[in-house]
Design brief:
alpha/beta, TIM Barrel, 43% helix, eight-stranded parallel β-barrel, 12 helices, globular, binds 1,3-dihydroxyacetonephosphate
Length: 253
């Protein structure tokens, strides 16, 4: 059975003190993770160690970096390598978020290299895909997302893709308060699973957790996560409020 995941993406928010307070409050707020469920905290680099220490010993709870560089090491001032993340015990790395694609020009080819280096150092990618509004309005979102997946992931083996994590985040739904409808989310998630089924077979496709991202809130998570091909969410704004994120965790199937 594939994993159901509530992943927080704090983006570039919070001071260390605020981050500590948020994690403390969340730990004190009733939430329950079943055997097949995970909570993941995608936090800014400087807080990874401290958040990881706070969550130490909690079952099915993991930390994620929000990015890593695609080179092993060397003269790349300001960048953070996969090996560094491995050395501090990071579990997941969010890759290819639309904000990184847009503001930092991350291409599908560069993301393929980042996926590879994550695998090399035992980090699990949370690979983001999703279309901008103009593509949705043109009705070409299926092929747009398919190209993102093909160009960044189709060089991987079936073994590497077994249990892989994708986040579908339609750009027009991020931070806008405008969620995809349950039907729109289900349709695209089924399409994504179908893309993997065609290339790698049903067993691999059925093992992939496909998270939905884009204005997931405490009051809509249950409906969205209830869709058959939606395996949880990647959550921005609502993950900064402990009680909201606890509710979102409790909305996992
Ligand atoms: P919001 O939940 O704030 O819309 O952000 C979604 C997102 O980009 C998560 O990665």
């Amino acid at each position: 059975m594939r994993k159901q995941i509530a992943a927080a993406n704090w983006k570039m928010n919070l001071t260390l003190q605020q981050a500590d307070a948020l994690v403390n409050e969340l730990l004190a707020t009733p939430h329950n993770l079943g055997e097949n469920q995970q909570a993941v905290f995608g936090v800014p680099f400087p807080y990874l160690i401290s958040v990881k220490n706070k969550l130490d010993g909690k079952k099915n709870v993991f930390v994620a970096a929000q990015n890593c560089y695609d080179k092993k090491s060397g003269a790349y001032t300001g960048e953070v390598s996969a090996e560094m993340l491995q050395s501090i015990g990071v579990d997941y790395v969010i890759l290819g978020h639309s904000e990184r694609r847009e503001y930092f020009n991350e291409s599908n080819a560069m993301l393929a290299a980042k996926v590879n280096i994550c695998f090399e150092y035992g980090l699990k990618p949370i690979f983001c895909c999703g279309e901008p509004l103009a593509i949705r309005e043109a009705g070409t979102e299926n092929s747009f997302v398919e190209t993102q997946l093909k160009e960044s992931l189709f060089h991987l083996t079936a073994e590497q893709l077994t249990g892989f994590v994708i986040a579908y985040e339609p750009i027009w739904a991020i931070g806008t308060g405008k969620t995809a409808s349950n039907e729109q989310a289900q349709q695209m998630h089924a399409h994504i699973r179908g893309v993997f089924a065609k290339q790698y077979g049903d067993t691999v496709a059925d093992s992939i957790s496909i998270l939905y991202g884009g204005s997931v809130k405490a009051n809509n998570a249950k409906d969205i996560f209830g869709q058959p091909d939606v395996d949880g969410g990647l959550v921005g704004g609502a993950s900064l409020v402990a009680t909201d994120f606890a509710t979102i965790i409790n909305s996992l199937k």
